[in-house]
Amino acid sequence: MSESNTELGYIDGNKKEDFSPSRVKYKKTVGDRIFVVCNIIFMILFVVITLYPILNTLAISFNDGIDAVKGGIHLIPRKFTLNNYMVVFKQQNLIRGLVISVLRTVVGTGLGVVANAILAFLVSRKRFLLKKPLTVFWVVTMYVNGGMIPVLLLYKNLHLTGTFWVYVIPGMLAAFNMLVMRTFMEGIPDSLEEAAQMDGAGYATIFIKILSPLCKPMYATVALFIAVGQWNSWFDTMLYNRLSSEYTTLQYELMKLLSSVSSQSSKTDPNSTEGANLTPVAVRSAATIVTMAPIVCLYPFLQKYFVTGLTIGGVKE
Fold this sequence. Notes:
By secondary structure, the protein is an all-alpha fold. The chain has helices at about 5-10, 30-60, 65-70, 85-90, 95-125, 130-140, 150-155, 175-185, 190-200, 205-215, 215-230, 235-240, 250-265, 280-305; strands at about 10, 15. It has a two-stranded antiparallel ribbon. Helix 4 (about 85-90) crosses helix 14. The longest helix is centred in the N-terminal third of the chain and has 32 residues, at about 30-60. It starts with a helix and ends in a 14-residue tail after the last helix.
């Protein structure tokens, strides 16, 4: 029997059916079709529920302030205007706050990922004697802290208040991020490390050239967590740098804008058209879009790393 006849499905001159996985077609049952339809409906509803609040906020941000208070705006502005965004961008120190927010996000995210990755690498090694005690210590810090006033006094004694580094140094190490990285690293086969050690590689080489490339999805996930936290943070600015306008942040400036708009709105005659563009509902929506846009633009670049199983099949134990 020739090889070509075997590939075509002929055995002893008789044609046989090809049962290869690529040729087998499974007949869908009624239950399969019902499941597909229900799955499609569920996903459509999920997308609508997810996108509607964002699109509704966008529509209100482009709508006239007084008209937005009446309600009834869904996906399309009823009275289109750019005045809400003009009010937001005219806020004093807004550009300075934007620069500081970008810097703290970039620097804080970079240093946070590096610091947590190094620490996670240490506690994920089986030969590390203090692995369990240190892990328990960091887990405890997730539930217990010193309180706001002791932390403020500590930062003041460390000369961190009134500086840019109060945004970066205290948040470099986070127990949750470290545990996420440690769990991921422990899932990487030990054979990779053992093979590298047999070739004379040290721990620094193993961490940089072997583990780190495999940990890109986890690094991207933790980086997104840290970046969102750094970008949205404003309370630390109010506590530690309230008197230092040079270190103000975008979120803190927008918070002050919303507070001033709310106070002005309560003092404005409701029958007057003066201050219509300072309606809290419209300005709040515009501020939300302004603060959300950078993170939304950043997410697609990190999404491709949100995959798992990069080491599946790499080493057979």
